[in-house]
Specification:
This is F-box domain-containing protein. It comes from Lentinus tigrinus ALCF2SS1-6. There is one protein chain. The chain is α/β, with parallel strands linked by helices and 321 residues long. It is built from ten helices and eight strands. Strands 1-2-3-4-5-6-7-8 form an eight-stranded parallel beta sheet, sandwiched between helices. Helix 7 (221-227) links the parallel strand 5 (209-213) and strand 6. 32% of the residues are buried.
């Protein structure tokens, strides 16, 4: 232990704890020396799949912060976060393909309670960790619509979103999904800010790389120039024809800092119009997906890319596949 500098041990521990808080817990119980060295990097990389996990994590993390403060040592920080709210993995019931009408009303009541708890816990989580967060991946499913959470990420550099971005902002406005219990006060989160407010105070002021995957992104693309004004790299994977049409428009507002655009169409090999619409931007059109992939494909792939970026890999930022 004494033969290596503290920085080297912390780097080793950081790699060991990628995507696993259990490893950090085990190492912290090894010895007082390990615990002291591990504390700043123990929560460097965190994956959370349910509200129950978030609640447990908050209790452990807040205790670690309090302990570091009392001992006047370096506090822990979360640099990399993966959130996965997926059927069969998270703690909300998903309606099956055939259900009785009374089951739907019962489900709506349960979902409303889940939404209220979601907003409370996620607001608390983001308030604690967002100042230091560098990368984030959010895996969502159309069967589990997520409520809006007021938040900002001043240091976030890289973001990957599967299916939706409704947790962060609600522009342009559209009717709520029939599956989503309505709440005029957004479950205590307050009314989402409008475009003018977002332009004055962007949610992602330092974001450089954005990966949007398998969703109806054509309606939301113009807003990303507002909420992430310093974006340099944008990738859209499994892009629909409608999304490709928007990307092909010279009228599409993009951040002036954008230097690289990667598009993987859902069902078309090439779309030269996209390159022509963005002079001065390095446009890469990847081959279309060879088959109609289920979302489960992305459930496995995107976490791998998240880990890859933490360990010096390219992740999704490649010119060929």
């Amino acid at each position: 232990m004494n033969s290596l500098p503290t920085e080297v041990w912390q780097y080793i521990f950081k790699l060991a704890c990628v995507e696993s808080t259990r490893t950090g817990s085990a190492l912290s119980r090894t010895s007082k020396a390990f615990r002291h060295v591990l504390t700043p990097v123990r929560f460097d990389s965190v994956r959370l799949n349910s509200l129950k996990q978030i609640e447990k994590f908050l209790a452990v993390y807040e205790a670690a912060v309090a302990e570091a403060t009392s001992s006047k040592s370096d506090p822990p920080h979360v640099r990399h976060l993966l959130l996965a709210f997926l059927p069969g993995q998270t703690d909300v019931i998903v309606l099956g393909p055939s259900f009785h009408f009374r089951d739907f009303h019962s489900w709506q009541e349960v979902k409303k309670q889940w939404n209220e708890r979601f907003v409370s816990l996620m607001t608390r989580l983001f308030d604690l960790i967002s100042p230091d967060l560098l990368t984030m991946t959010v895996l969502q499913n159309h069967e589990i619509p997520l409520p809006y959470v007021p938040c900002s990420f001043p240091a976030l550099r890289e973001l990957t979103l599967l299916h939706e971005d409704r947790m962060f902002f609600r522009m342009p406005a559209k009717p709520e999904s029939w599956m989503e219990p309505s709440d005029n006060e957004f479950y205590g989160a307050g009314t989402p800010p409008d475009k003018e407010v977002l332009a004055a105070k962007p949610i992602f002021p330092a974001l450089e790389r954005l990966h949007l995957v398998d969703g109806e992104w054509e309606a939301k693309l113009p807003m990303w120039a507002v909420v992430a004004p310093r974006l340099t790299h944008l990738r859209v994977s499994s892009a629909s024809q409608e999304c490709c049409d928007v990307l092909s428009s010279a009228l599409l507002a993009t951040p002036p800092t954008l230097s690289t655009l990667i598009v993987q169409p859902h069902s078309k090999d090439r779309d030269a119009r996209i390159a022509n619409a963005h002079p001065g931007v390095d446009v890469v059109i990847l081959p279309a997906l060879k088959r109609d992939l289920k979302q489960e494909y992305w459930y496995e792939r995107l976490p791998r890319e998240w880990v890859s970026r933490q360990t010096g890999g390219k992740g999704a930022w490649v010119r060929s596949e």
